[in-house]
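INFO  loader      accepted 1 record
INFO  loader      residues=80
INFO  predictor   begin
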Amino acid sequence: MTMAETHMPSIELNTDVLQRSRRKTGLTFIGLSAPAFVLVVLVLIIPFAWLAWMSLYDASGALSAENYARLLRPAYVEAF
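INFO  predictor   done
INFO  writer      dumping tokens
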């Protein structure tokens, strides 16, 4: 039996340990970042999406581009 054959099981064991460690690190990262991701979605993404959705409707509730056409008025153009 050569020296390389006697050390082969430890190499396999080390790769298994490293893979488990990487998996654990990835799950820890996901677990720690998930609450922040949920907070960003609740506080920023959902209100912005709701505002964008509501901007597509006019005062009577009909689907319209009136709000975007209003941006082309001279007062708004000068302000931008």
